Amino acid sequence: MARHISFGTPVNDAERWAFSLLSDELPEDYLLLTNVEIPTHTGQAMEVDALVVGEFGVYVVDVKGYIGRLNAGLHAWSLDGRHVDNSLSKANYVARVLAGKLKNKIPVGVYAPWCQGMVFVTGRKGEEILVEKDTGKLSIYTPAKIIEALTKEWGLTAPHIHPVTETQKEMVLDTIGQVALVEQRNNKIQDFIKLKCLFLQQGLEVWQSEYNPGGWTAPWLLKILVTSQFEHSIDATNHEQKLRDEFKRIQSLSGCSCVPFCAPLIQDGEQVVLPIRMPRGVPLNIFEVDKQTTYQLLEILRRSVTGLQQIHRRGYTIGGWADNCIFISEDADVEFIDIKDSLNTSEDIKAYAQAFLSLAEKTLQPRIYQWYRAAANGSTIDLDVIRCDLSALIDLGVCDTLPQKVEIEKGAVIDHHYRLDHFISATSRSQLWRALHIQGNYPCCVSVYQDVDNQWHTLSNMYRSLAKIYHPHVERVLAFGQLPQSDDLFIARDWVQGVGLDEVQTIEVGQPRLWFVQLLTALQYLHSLDIHHGAICPKNIICRDEKATLVNFGIGSDIAATHYAAQYADPTLWSVEGDAEKDLYGLVASFIDAMAPESIKQGSSADAMLRALEQHDKQWLGEAFYDACYKILKFEMRIVPNVSYAKQLGLDEQELENSGL
């Protein structure tokens, strides 16, 4: 694209189309001056359609919009048999005048650049024109040859060919006069000064500019619509309406996060200009994600999703999700510069997730990137969930992930906080460790799970649920995340003081019943929130003095199937029962298994649990409580909605109230 300086307005469509072609097709080191006047020695000025300062010479180009058959001779021309002016003669005369002016200005020892006339016959925008020349040497060209004639050596009529130097180019500009002022005038729209063209396509331009009212400057983008450059007026009208609609959208979204500020539309008769403040930062496609900390990435995501929500709540969607239309700054500012309102809300969220998925995965936070994966597939549109998760991770504090893989062994540090001190148990897909919170110097436990993708939904739901509730007889979840350079997940939990129900050495009268009622109330609360333990057994019931606590939620179906609750029940019945019924079964069976001697049980099967229960005194346990436990062990009890478990198991209100003391 040549450097184009317009000294005046094109007088017809032929000139306008010709200047556009020359500007687009000529090399960038060429200079194109249009509708320029060349001064003569008498003080008069001769207007030139186009003056091209090229690699080998200076060309005075006369533009003609002839349509038909042009016969061009050395002296006379005819168009479809009618006499027309010899435009080449005029162009050559102006070229000789210009050459004379240059020779008068040239210093001693410096050659003047070669100047020659040339005629550009456009036809009807490059068509419906046939040129016949009496001699091939005449510099008369159609659109098919004009660019080559101006850029190749064969297009010159000079006896000797010499490249035009920078000094000679400056001489030409100096001879014309006030070129710099004219260029500055052309590059200025009110107080906006055009600096660099970022996009150019038939009538549409995007310029990097600065706002310079005097005393200070600010960077802006200018979206310019030149209506005269469209082939059809209806296209110009449609594009102008789109530009006006964009202005209305940005104005309507004023005050929303991630929406750039825009100034009022500028219209001067030839062009419509939409000034948009230059977004801070760089486009997403060149943003250096690898250099950002986890906190910065999370903040970028939080601001982007907050802005998206605000835009949707005002009834608009973005639609323009190209990487170069999303800007991100070092301060985690996010701006969307192409708000089209062309999608529905669901499609917009899906496109947003696809645009930011790679950035989300760099956080190595499963709570975050799993949502973006799901949204990118169209399986979720809940922006509130991801915004809350992002805020929670930022506010609670998330350390940047270590670059190297962590080996799960004694002494290993998980997430900068948790040091593994003592191995407790493991299966093929999970491990359980006692750990120490390094900064807080208090004990906790850490569960590690392999195969994050397969276990994500179960673990994620459990973590989200437990992290948001508190119950004195339910363990507290401290942290949840993914191990670096690995597909393994970890969950850090509070370490509950005490021993497993099956390891209690001394039992006082009334203690087991108190523990049972406490855990029953905990299950009632959890089940009302749709949270299920899934693996209740003596080892997951920690007892100390007057308190029992449920631990190891979601430890994994593999553990439950080996030596936890499932071992008590009939496998067929266990597989078809509901989650709440399984938890109640595990609670009852765990207490019977832990409290009854082996001589009575003779194993841990469902029949063994029933035999052990039958050895208890009905009156001592309470007939209603005894019957309820018996039905639970036989999977014959149906839970009644909106009725407390204690009442359904025959426990009195006084006993229930005392369990919390």
From TrEMBL:
Signal peptide residues on this chain, from the entry's feature table: none
Domain Protein kinase: 418-661
SUPFAM superfamilies, alphabetized: Protein kinase-like (PK-like)
Residue ranges occupied by any NERD domain in the UniProt entry: 10-121
Keyword annotations from UniProtKB, A to Z: Kinase, Serine/threonine-protein kinase, Transferase
Record GO terms (molecular function): protein serine/threonine kinase activity
Matches recorded under InterPro entries: Kinase-like_dom_sf (IPR011009), NERD (IPR011528), Prot_kinase_dom (IPR000719)
Protein name: Serine/threonine protein kinase
